[in-house]
Design brief:
By secondary structure, the chain is an alpha+beta fold.
């Protein structure tokens, strides 16, 4: 070991010893809780048991005795007693001043309310400081976690109750508190558990029910019971079974029924002898009298009324239209909607049994129309029947929104950030001619900062203009027999027309698009989008001479990339399936899967000439036609670490392939895969990696992609928002199918015997400032494996004797690359 390394090692140990000793001094009022462990549990996991304990030991560094948060709490709490007295005086004075300022004011006046809000905001800030300490104590520090005997005894009882509720018998739980030598004044608590025995359920068909109709209904659905024969009794399934019975009865007319009337008893007598459990269901519960004597009444719906209240103070004499359709009375106040359409969204009908699921489905389908601020369903049972009134408040007919933002191209350091601002506007017109159909127009204007196609060392702002108009119908526009099957899934049909212009230093590119898509949501976790008709006309003009020369040089080598920049006709059909068990995007826990399938030029197979006649006549032979198949899958997983919720492990796997079966074996440029940049491999510039082991000075499209990323995300500090950190690693590359635009690009084709050697990899550290409504992200990355390096050794992290793949006379540069972004990378 060198002298320098020895010095660093001694210095590190000294700092650790100092921080550990500082938080070991007996300045605390009670022993500190150092750790909590479980011993003897085999069936029930430690993670489940940890969730029962409200106490948490102070956070440590890598399981060492060092608790920096506790140290800083001590350090900044020295002046807290004097500060607390001052703050208490400030709070008293604040209340006194408020009394003086508001004396004689009406409590409902604007002036009083304004003063009250100002006073309350300041009082909350002072009260928090009094209770939790000064800013440094709350932000940098961590309050001490004490050990109390009473808490440990309560935890023992909680653990016992947990085992009892999960089907265990003869269990034993105790605890032991040990003082620590390495951490004086601290206690390590060990909970010792003897889980005893657990018996399976052997019978669950015993029903003790007074009402014969309810008993018959339960027996018909007994196979759906969540207390399965052969399974261990668990509290979660016990409660879920009561919920199932309640929902079953409410869906069969029993409007007044509640799970409070259910008692599920476990016949645990002689369990030691029988080693089994029997389940008995009682309705009503023998433990309590029915609170509602009508719990066993099956209600029938007598009438259904729908009221669309579009009244407004600006309209003194509202116009009311009354329409009767399919046994539903519609009252439209000022705003009329299509009764025929609403009939398909309302599942409640007179002379049918009450059904809670149909009530929920009706609200869901009306909300999915995107025409109402809210809907409320009132149910009146005063006459022994249910009178249903659906009250809906329409949204404004027109809605206009503006969004501004931008991206930033990072040239490797904060000094080289090049902003690319954008502006997006949206205008939506609802309920066109009372049909509940909508028009939506979106316009985008922006500049995207990007490295040059031929000169990656130059950064320009590329002009982007986009205009798209959509006609939205709240149904699937197919024959009635098919569209009816989607009614419960929030269906939509979108017919879109739009255009996009991109102006780069190398060329201008304009695209015109017409398409239609069907969208529906089978559940809150699943989403489908299917497009049977999507047509694009693309034209590339004003090509720079250097860019044309580059394309011509590739063509002479047999690479027909030039074809992608000629006038093109692209028609395709596609389908997208998305699943997420965290539909609100909190990124705390769960998984995400997106599968995309596209078939391009399918209709061209119906023409003998493989072209469409009138388009060929209009554009002559310069128009390029494409036939291809594209498939991709994106999977993400978010895994919390520990019980605090402050640390998260997230990873992503993205893969796909696009194959052209047209005569020229070339994909449309936009249908290729690209890799590199802030949301991909972060040590490479956007679109700058690959394909394969080839490296060039231009955008690098590929027809095969394999990409993965992993991040360990953790909270650092809170300052008006959450400042979070991340350690990350990215890996992947793109390749091309053999004989598809690979000429002159050595190593760009996909080969099974070498593709794994061409996986690029980087590592890095990131800072993210989370302000709830958006996240500002800085990621610094450095390359570990670079497949462009020739000679077999692609390891570049600490290798200083490599040569630049593009300029062999220069040494290889591996800078720390900065990426700036809005939002998380995945």
């Amino acid at each position: 070991m060198t002298l320098k390394k020895t010095f660093y090692y001694i210095f590190f140990l000294s700092v650790c010893f100092y921080l550990s000793s500082c938080t070991s001094k007996t300045v605390f009022s009670d022993p500190l809780l150092y750790s909590q462990n479980f011993k003897g549990n085999k069936v029930i996991t430690t993670e489940n048991l940890e969730g029962l304990l409200p106490q948490r030991p102070n956070k440590k560094i890598l399981k060492t005795p060092i608790t920096p948060g506790l140290y800083f709490y001590q350090l900044f709490s020295k002046k807290f007693p004097q500060q607390k007295l001052r703050w208490q005086e400030e709070l008293t004075k604040l209340n006194q001043d408020f009394e003086l300022q508001t004396r004689g004011l009406d409590n409902n006046s604007n002036e009083y309310i304004k003063l009250a809000l100002k006073k309350e905001k300041k009082a909350q800030k002072i009260s928090r400081a009094i209770q939790e300490g000064n800013w440094a104590m709350r932000t940098l520090g961590e309050a001490p976690s004490y050990f109390f005997k009473e808490d440990a005894e309560k935890n023992v009882e909680k653990i016992k109750t947990y085992y009892k509720n999960h089907g265990f018998f003869q269990y034993q739980v105790s605890y032991k508190a040990d003082s620590l030598f390495i951490k004086k004044g601290s206690v390590a608590v060990t909970y010792t558990i003897n889980e005893g025995v657990h018996y399976p359920i052997v019978q669950n068909d015993s029903l003790v029910i007074k009402d014969p109709r309810i008993e018959l209904l339960l027996r018909k659905n007994q196979q759906k019971s969540l207390l399965k024969v052969g399974a261990r009794l668990e509290l979660e399934n016990y409660n879920a079974e009561k919920d199932r019975i309640e929902q079953l009865l409410k869906n069969n007319g029993y409007y007044a029924f509640s799970k409070d009337y259910i008692s599920i008893k476990i016949n645990a007598l002689d369990t030691a002898k029988t080693q089994s459990l029997k389940v008995v269901t009682f309705i009503p519960s023998p433990d309590r009298a029915p609170r509602n004597p009508n719990y066993a009444t099956a209600y029938t719906i007598s009438s259904v009324q729908f009221i669309a209240d579009g009244s407004s103070p600006s309209i003194p004499k509202p116009k009311v239209d009354t329409v009767n359709s399919r046994f539903i009375q519609y009252l439209f106040v000022n705003k009329r909607f299509s009764p025929k359409l609403l009939d398909t969204k309302i599942d409640l009908r007179p002379n049918t049994l009450f059904n809670q699921e149909k009530v929920s489905q009706t609200q869901k389908k009306l909300y999915a129309l995107e025409q109402f601020q809210f809907t409320r369903i009132n149910l009146d049972t005063t006459k022994g029947l249910i009178s249903a009134s659906i009250y809906a408040r329409p949204l404004d007919k027109y809605e206009f929104s503006v969004e501004t933002g931008g991206s930033v191209f990072a040239g490797g350091s904060l000094a080289n950030l090049v902003p690319g601002p954008f502006l997006t506007t949206s205008l939506k017109a609802r309920n066109i001619k009372g049909s509940a159909n909508s028009f939506e127009t979106n316009f985008r204007f922006g500049f995207e900062a990007q490295a040059g196609f031929l000169r990656p060392d130059s950064v320009t702002r590329n002009l982007e203009l986009g205009l798209n108009t959509s006609f939205i119908l709240p149904k699937i526009l197919l024959p009635e027999s098919i569209s009816q099957r989607f009614e419960n899934f929030s269906p939509q049909t979108r017919i879109s027309v739009g255009g996009e212009f991109i102006g780069r230093q190398e060329y201008n590119r304009f695209g015109f698009k017409i398409g239609s898509s069907f969208l529906w949501r089978p559940s809150p976790n699943q989403y489908w989008s299917v497009s049977l008709f999507d047509v694009n006309l693309i034209n590339t003009s004003n090509q720079a001479p250097a860019f044309r020369n580059f394309l011509d040089s590739l063509l002479r080598l047999g690479n027909n990339l030039k074809r992608s920049f000629q006038q093109s006709f692209i028609s395709s059909m596609s389908a997208t399936y998305t699943y997420t068990d965290n539909p609100y995007g909190q990124l705390k826990q769960g998984k995400y899967l997106k599968i995309f399938i596209e078939s391009g030029g399918t209709t061209l197979n119906l023409f003998k000439s493989k072209k469409i006649g009138f388009l060929t006549t209009l554009f002559e032979d310069s128009l390029q036609f494409y036939r291809f198949v594209k498939v991709s899958a994106d999977y993400r997983k978010y895994i919390p670490i520990g019980t605090s919720g402050k640390t998260l492990f997230a990873y992503r796997i993205n893969t796909g392939a696009a194959y052209s079966y047209g005569g020229d074996k070339e994909l449309p440029y936009e249908k290729n895969f690209f890799i590199g940049g802030p949301n991909s491999l972060r040590a490479w510039r956007p679109r700058g990696l690959g394909p394969g082991s080839f490296t060039g000075s231009f955008d690098n499209p590929g027809s095969i992609i394999l990409e993965s990323s992993a991040e360990l995300r953790f909270k650092i500090i809170r300052f008006y928002g959450d400042l979070n950190g991340a350690l990350f690693a990215d890996a992947g590359n793109v390749w091309r199918f053999p004989n598809q635009s690979t000429a002159g690009l050595a190593g760009s084709d996909f080969q099974f015997n070498r593709f794994y050697k061409e996986i690029a990899m980087d590592i890095g550290f990131g800072l993210r400032y989370d302000l709830s409504f958006f996240v500002i992200r800085f990621d610094w990355a450095v390359r570990m494996l670079d497949p462009a390096i020739k000679g077999g050794n692609t390891w570049v992290l600490f290798n200083n004797n490599l040569k630049d793949p593009l300029k062999s006379e220069e040494s290889y540069k591996n800078p720390l690359t900065l990426n700036f972004g809005i939002g998380y990378p995945f």
